[in-house]
């Protein structure tokens, strides 16, 4: 009859189907972790002892899988140096801090050939771990180095200015560490550095 349309089955390759299902599962798990993170802010979070490298690798992997979807050309690199140092940390909260720093770096990175570098360095001599996130973007405006950690101050046109202050609070109050702007050069980029004490020195 006129108006009838033939129905046809759409075949999805098994490999693509499995990839999509895995992606959905990862996003669902990530949403659960996000909810867990914010339920811990304001209360005393549970800290685990170990290496932060796994949570860093997972976070970098999460963003790396999504970078190809962006119209901009951005590369994210991850390196680990030094000897592993065990620290006391909350995976959900520290993961959120790292996500915030990487998001900011991606947003600030060079528009044509963006580069975000994430690096973990274990310092066995002074029993600490440093985690840095560097971009090759516009840098932080001179005079804004300390203000960016104040609530309500944002360098982006769309932003509440709460990410960095909250990230700094999580690092300093809950992990007894430091979060600072370690380097910035107008037109060349910026680097944020997290320093965490080793487990034996933070107990």
Automatic annotation (TrEMBL):
<dbReference type="InterPro" id="IPR003594">
    <property type="entry name" value="HATPase_dom"/>
</dbReference>
<protein>
    <recommendedName>
        <fullName>histidine kinase</fullName>
        <ecNumber>2.7.13.3</ecNumber>
    </recommendedName>
</protein>
<dbReference type="GO" id="GO:0005524">
    <property type="term" value="F:ATP binding"/>
</dbReference>
<dbReference type="Pfam" id="PF02518">
    <property type="entry name" value="HATPase_c"/>
</dbReference>
<keyword id="KW-0808">Transferase</keyword>
<dbReference type="InterPro" id="IPR005467">
    <property type="entry name" value="His_kinase_dom"/>
</dbReference>
<feature type="domain" description="Histidine kinase">
    <location>
        <begin position="19"/>
        <end position="200"/>
    </location>
</feature>
<keyword id="KW-0418">Kinase</keyword>
<keyword id="KW-0547">Nucleotide-binding</keyword>
<keyword id="KW-0597">Phosphoprotein</keyword>
<dbReference type="GO" id="GO:0004673">
    <property type="term" value="F:protein histidine kinase activity"/>
</dbReference>
<dbReference type="InterPro" id="IPR036890">
    <property type="entry name" value="HATPase_C_sf"/>
</dbReference>
<dbReference type="InterPro" id="IPR004358">
    <property type="entry name" value="Sig_transdc_His_kin-like_C"/>
</dbReference>
<keyword id="KW-0067">ATP-binding</keyword>
<dbReference type="GO" id="GO:0000160">
    <property type="term" value="P:phosphorelay signal transduction system"/>
</dbReference>
<keyword id="KW-0902">Two-component regulatory system</keyword>
